[in-house]
Write a structure and sequence with these properties.
Blueprint: H1 7-10, H2 13-45, H3 47-83, H4 87-123, H5 127-142, H6 145-159, H7 164-186, H8 196-218, H9 228-261, H10 265-281, H11 283-301, H12 305-332, H13 334-339, H14 345-359, H15 362-377, H16 381-404, H17 414-442
Length: 443
């Protein structure tokens, strides 16, 4: 770890981004394509299956929140200890990852298996959709061991400056999923036709393949049990903001689905298709978030505050430039984007309307996504969590409900208004942070 991390504190920020962002973006691109292809094949199999994927999406986000959030806590702690040259401690933190992954998997698998039928009935009255949600949801939850272990080991490697191995693992896992999707869903090459269950089995197989590929470098020997309490406390002190950040997405998507279900199942499906495309267009933001956490954490620990500020400036420039492309697509070609997944004219009509409202939210969304990550990396866990909770709990769902009372079309205003408010509050926290540190320097 000692030799691979020093470039966080010495290399030019743009060069660091060009070194570590492309592998992350490529891996996320493949992941986005696999999500899109997954929905594409399921949509061709049945419309009810496509609606089921939209309903189960918040549950998958919750799994990702627990896995990635814990991984970020490990990643940030490792980067911190590398920044202050405590390499043995960094290895110790890395060694706890596997145990945490197994505990999270067991708890999540058991809970979701038992609660999945009730969750499905809460989201829809269609017996066909309920059956698909239960089938798909139980398989991806019980088989999620690959997701949890891969997420932890990937963050360990990224903290050490190794972006190549996680990229290869994620690409291989995604390709595995893409290849298995049509084979298992439609029953090709003598394989039994499994329908939506086949899509679920393809998903967990891809996750396990990715986990196996990062295991060799990502797995570290566990420290003694006496080290666990303090290290786990440190991991989740930094990881909880990220867990909250991602877990609240589950809340707001669940809440928005409930609001739209009051209008029609087609509205729920249209929102679900947005989240499929969102995965693709948010690749730049996801890569920037992944890159800036270890850079800022390293330099903040090393007291290089100006370097932290420069990192944010570069991240904003790249984020806005790249998200503008997404805005253009959502404004000018929403119908072709929706037609990739469905031929249902009502879903397309609703989706076109919604995509054009959502598209204008992409630019302010850069700040809404990056400010919480900055605050997390600099130890401002409360403010990071506040921004996320404000955005997803106190803005998205209440505003969605309020606007929907004026008519369905007004519901879509929720997205741009929420992102603008969140970015303004995030900027206020960010400016105050630097004012405080200037005062400390002058003293």
């Amino acid at each position: 770890m000692e030799t691979n991390s020093s470039f966080y504190g010495t290399e030019k920020i743009n060069k660091i981004f060009f070194k570590i962002a492309p592998p992350v973006m490529l891996a996320q691109l493949i992941q986005a394509l696999y999500n899109i292809v997954d929905s594409l094949f399921v949509g061709k199999y049945s419309e009810s299956g496509l609606t089921a994927l939209s309903i189960i999406y918040p549950v998958q986000l919750l799994m990702i929140a627990l896995a990635v959030g814990t991984g970020v806590g490990i990643n940030t702690n490792i980067a911190h200890f590398l920044g202050i040259k405590r390499y043995k401690k960094a290895d110790e933190v890395a060694g706890i990852g596997f145990s945490l992954a197994i505990i999270m998997w067991i708890l999540f698998a058991v809970s979701c298996y038992l609660l999945m039928p009730a969750y499905a009935r809460l989201q829809t009255n269609s017996d066909t959709v309920i059956a698909d949600v239960i089938t798909y949801g139980r398989i991806v939850c019980v088989g999620s061991i690959g997701l949890f272990t891969e997420s932890i080991w990937t963050k360990v490697l990224q903290a050490n400056g190794d972006m190549k191995t996680p990229m290869i693992a994620q690409i291989t896992g995604a390709i595995t999923n893409i290849v298995l999707d049509p084979i298992l869903i439609f029953g090709l090459f003598g394989i039994p036709k499994l329908g939506i269950a086949g899509a679920a089995f393809a998903t967990i197989t891809g996750q396990v393949v990715a986990a196996l590929l990062v295991m060799k470098k990502g797995f570290h020997r566990s420290p003694s049990l006496c080290k666990y309490p303090e290290d786990i406390r440190r991991i989740y002190a930094l990881g909880i903001p990220n867990i909250i950040m991602q877990a609240t997405y589950t809340f707001y998507i669940f809440g928005l689905n409930m609001i739209l279900a009051g209008f029609s199942d087609e509205a729920v499906t249209a929102l679900g298709l947005y989240y499929k495309w969102q995965t693709f267009f948010f690749i730049p933001l996801g890569a920037l978030q992944t890159c800036i956490v270890p850079i800022i954490s390293y330099n903040y620990a090393a007291k290089s505050i100006d370097r932290c500020k420069h990192t944010m400036t570069v991240a904003f420039i790249w984020g806005i430039a790249l998200m503008f492309i997404g805005t253009l697509c959502f404004e000018f070609i929403p119908e072709p984007m929706l037609s990739v997944f469905t031929k249902d004219s009502e879903v397309i009509r609703i989706g076109v309307q919604g995509f054009r409202f959502i598209g204008i939210s992409f630019i302010p969304m850069v700040g809404a996504q990056i400010y919480p990550v900055f605050l997390q990396a600099t130890g401002e866990a409360f403010k990071s969590s506040f921004l996320t909770i404000m955005r997803t709990v106190f803005l998205f769902v209440p505003l969605g409900y309020l606007f929907s009372r004026f008519g369905f079309v007004y519901f879509w205003l929720t997205f741009p208004i929420t992102e603008v408010i969140t970015t303004i509050v995030g900027f206020m926290f960010y400016r105050r942070f630097y004012r405080q540190h200037k005062m400390i320097v002058h003293e």
